[in-house]
Amino acid sequence: MGSKYRLLPQLAATFDRLGGTTAVDAFSGSGVVSYLLKAQGFDVVSNDFLGFPTVIARATVANSHVHLTDDLVDAICGPAADDRDFIQSTFDGLYFTREDRAFLDAAWSHIDLLTGPERDLAISALVLSAARKQPRGVFTFTDATRYADGRRDLRMPLREHFRERVAAYNATVFDNGTRHTVVNGDVFDLPTGAPDIVYLDPPYAPPRDDNDYIKRYHFLEGLSVYWRGQTIMHETKTKKLAKRFTPFAYKRTIDDALLRTFEHFRDAGAIVLSYSSNAVPDAARIVELLASVKPEVETIEIGHTYSFGTHAAAARRSVNEYLFVGRDA
């Protein structure tokens, strides 16, 4: 949800035009833009305030050489290494079948023995497997039968998903000749420095309600650390995690959050912001905010369709996606 995968051609052209060798992806999310920057030869700093996107970035951006071997995949997909049952008991009757929940516990019994890029690849494959198996890819509801349309992703056992996702992640591993940094933290804690490009794709503040990623992705966030250090709200039907405040998710705080972000990266060669026409503030206000630190601001408008789900019949919403490019005159 919110992935920039379909915007990559426009982003690639923009980054290529701006040039340089160093880039910061301050809200990495799915990791596709960090990976694009790596593919374009940049030295990338990738950051997200959620845990599971940082694991994905470590597996695909920071990792330049390591793959998961067939023997390791067979072990993870085989019998459990211990008798843990946290997922089976905590999420009994939720999201997945009994066999799928048992697989997640068993897989983690082996992943706990791994370190470094092997661990990151295995967790990334497990997280993506869970996202693909869950209808619409979000965990805000418990009645999966509402979206049981018979597509392959919903019919496949998680164990088979995992094998396929490992193969896909293994295929992403390459070395662009530079070193990359992955950070799990607040954007305002990132070193300022003077990177050639800072790319910003914060949560889009909706005109109503909020944009709470934890509410949508709590299961993936917990799964990425086996819920260690997480606070589960057991009184909720979805067993969600406690909300983590971000000023980017609310219309009352988004203006100040964007301005503070622009000021934080004022020394960058260029600031590139993705934003959407169905969010606040509007394009004119963003130009005004960005112009306070970068006197030359270019607005690129892109027709875009957001998909809410991963199947052919998923609900889609046409919006205008903007790229705001701020540079020194």
TrEMBL record:
Q: Which reaction does it catalyse?
A: a 2'-deoxyadenosine in DNA + S-adenosyl-L-methionine = an N(6)-methyl-2'-deoxyadenosine in DNA + S-adenosyl-L-homocysteine + H(+)
Q: What is its EC number?
A: 2.1.1.72
The top EC class, named as a word, is transferase
Key words, A-Z = Methyltransferase, S-adenosyl-L-methionine, Transferase
Q: What is the lineage of its organism?
A: Bacteria, Bacillati, Actinomycetota, Actinomycetes, Propionibacteriales
Any Gene Ontology biological process: DNA restriction-modification system
Q: State the organism named in the record.
A: Aeromicrobium camelliae
This chain belongs to the protein called site-specific DNA-methyltransferase (adenine-specific)
GO MF annotations, alphabetized: nucleic acid binding; site-specific DNA-methyltransferase (adenine-specific) activity
What residue range is the signal peptide?
A: none
Q: Which Pfam families match?
A: MethyltransfD12
